[in-house]
Amino acid sequence: MAHRVILESFSYQYPGQVTPALADISLAVPKGQCCALLGPTSAGKTTLLQSISGILHKHHASGFASGKIVIGDESYAPLPEEIQFPKIAYALQDPYVQISGVRETVLDEIRFTLENLGRWDSSTDDSILSLLRHLGIDHLAERKPTTLSGGETQRVALATILIAEPDVLLLDEPLTALDYVAQDRLSDLFKGIKERSTILFTDTHMEFALAVADVIVVLEKGRMVFSGDRKGLLDHIDSFESILPSHQWKELIRTVKVSQGPEATEAILKAMETI
Amino acid sequence: MRLDLKSKLASVFFLWVCAFTLDWPVNATLILLAILLRYVVPGFRPTSQRAARSIVAFMSYSTLIVLIVVSLNAVLLPGGDVLLIVGGIGFHESGALFGLRTACRLVLLSLSVLLFFASTPIREFIRFLQGTGFPPQLGLVLLLTLHFLEQLPDRINQIFAAQEARGSPVRANVVSRARAFVSILFPLVLSSISESIDRGQALELRGFLGQGQMPVFENRRSDTSLLTMSLILLSIALIILRILNWLIA
Amino acid sequence: MRIESKNVSFSYPGGPDVLRDLSFAIESGEFLLLVGQNGAGKSTLLKLLNGLLKPTHGSISIGELDTRHHATPLLAGHISVTFQNPADQIFASTVREEVAFSPTNLRRANARELTEKALALCNLQSVASHHPYDLPQAQRKLVTVAGALAAGTTFLAFDEPTAGLSQIERSVLDQMVTHLLNEGRGFIVVSHDLELFFRHATRVAVLSRGGLTFTGKTRELIESGTVLEEAGLRLPTSFQIKRRLKLP
């Protein structure tokens, strides 16, 4: 069952640092919704996901945190102190390290998660294969995980987490090595698991977020500079050029705004839905 | 009957005791039996093709090592009859026997360990260690180290390829190879450590060695515990016999 | 100068063909964008270009040099290739040293100048004396790109250069490509980031299941419509929106 995720004036400062990695973040993601955390490198996106997952406190217990994090009905002040897997699952940014490497095949690598949870039996292989199909990598089931290409590794890494059916799914830049078609599959998958998981993911630009996110947050240097929905972001995009994917996008938005006036944002979002 | 980990460990222990206490004909027989174990006893079957290959590779290398050890000793340790003269070099009986004894012992010792690890999923072993009070973090370190060692040759090749792609003649000759190797050693270890830390986090995040989620080694009584006990008792008996033997002689 | 691939096939020993019958050519001053689904064999092709792998059939020539008969360190004087994972490519203890690796090995007379120019083009001067491992992943990736630029080769080949980069680093790459194309250098770029590279690409090659299903001008590809879909790809989102809104 999907859980809501709420941050109340949450701040965090790494031990030995003079400036906070996150400052006064307030954010509410209702259960079953998808939240995109956007912003440039070192904006605090990863720290935010790590503080929710519990690994941040576990590995930097002497960091300074304040505020409150609420997950479902549980409230953590200021943040969870232990890894909450499988209630909350977090996939690291580098897909290569997400692969344990101790298993011979992709199928086995994903079984490994279920074994850790004591959930594995012969019948769960069907659900693993069906997950692989959804991700478009069922043909890789018998391949050795350390011999895959970047985009393939990325999707296997994702599967190792998704199979746990977490209430809250935290993904750090899940798109980096994916081609468009793989991205489209992922967006379908995100929509398909809404009942089960609330999703928070990070990305450096807004394109994928415009296709899937209910809540969009823009971070800059640890501060939240925008929070709202897709329409709100496009309406104010001039202030957040750092998350535009390309020149073409900039041109596109400008042209549409000239031709369609106040309807421009709606028109772009509508066109996106048909892709 | 599928052997559980305890009986397997007991078997390894037993073979070690045999290696140290018994003479080479018995040890040679045990080596042959140990190789058979891998085909006969379900618990000793290799977990993967790679593991099976490693046993085959070990056997061919150890044949070579036995030959070298025996002939070196036969040449260097005079005594007893001369078995063979090749090109004016004599091969002596007592040296050959000593060599045979040492070589059989060495092979039996390493074969028993190899059989154990080739047939035991590493996670099962770590779980077993955990069950006996071994700290879970050490299990994680063990796992990461194994992964690091496995990936090392690939990694070095990748880095060499990247250096070649930038005009460095790393594979030109032995000297340039050695120099390039030294130059990458430090960054290799550095990047591997930082990657291992991340991989460790990822494993933790997937519930590996998590808070009580991991089923601890089941301490149930099994039909193999009798075997375990008898192997241990037999080992102890062998040790005592050997000591008595030594005292009397 | 010209790179030409004639009927190139490649398979790893004992394996099936990874690449089949590839023929294409690019001149210096051109930008060849190589696209294809994950696992289509794009990275293998880059390794063939600088002789790290040798074709099982057919031939590749870099200018006058046939890659079958020349070692990688020699070919590296004409084509610089970077790979996806920066961890495999960084070994020096400062960014500047790292970038200087190629020109030093290649004994370029203007090694120093090449290094500084590469640092400037990749916006790395301010961190030139840092340890590469102290930089964030995205900047480390730019270090490998700068390392390739500094070689001063006519051709540059990059494997997924924008993976993991934020918009800031992507626009650095964007400007760098524009600058070097004007200088007459040639690019072969493997990337799924069509959004960024479509406007630079003079030619596009579509790789699908080991074979080329399209080589030609970018405009022809856009107009052809189905080629990309057949290769399991699609046009960048901004292009599609433009189309749907019937914008020029």
What does this structure look like?
- The complex is a heterotrimer of chains A (275), B (249) and C (248).
- Chain A has 275 residues and is an alpha/beta fold.
- Chain A is built from eleven helices and ten strands.
- Chain A has helices spanning 45-53, 55-59, 95-98, 106-116, 124-134, 150-162, 180-192, 207-212, 230-235, 247-260, 264-273; strands spanning 5-13, 22-29, 34-38, 64-71, 74-76, 88-91, 168-171, 198-203, 215-220, 223-228.
- In chain A, helix 7 links the parallel strand 7 (168-171) and strand 8 (198-203).
- The two termini of chain A are 30 Å apart.
- The model of chain A has no long low-confidence stretch (mean pLDDT 90).
- Chain B is mostly helical and 249 residues long.
- Chain B has a two-stranded antiparallel ribbon.
- Chain B folds into two domains: 1-120 and 220-249, no CATH class; 131-218, no CATH class.
- The two termini of chain B are 41 Å apart.
- Chain C is an alpha/beta fold.
- Helix content of chain C is 35%, strand content 25%.
- In chain C, strands 6-7-8-3-9-10 form a six-stranded mixed β-sheet, with helices on both faces. A four-stranded antiparallel β-sheet of chain C has the order 2-1-4-5, covered by helices on one side.
- In chain C, helix 6 links the parallel strand 7 and strand 8.
- In chain C, helix 3 (95-105) crosses helix 4 (111-121), helix 3 runs parallel beside helix 5 and helix 4 (111-121) runs antiparallel to helix 5 (137-149).
- The two termini of chain C are 36 Å apart.
- Classes of the chains: A alpha/beta (275), B mainly alpha (249), C alpha/beta (248).
- The interface between A and C is large, with 45 and 40 residues.
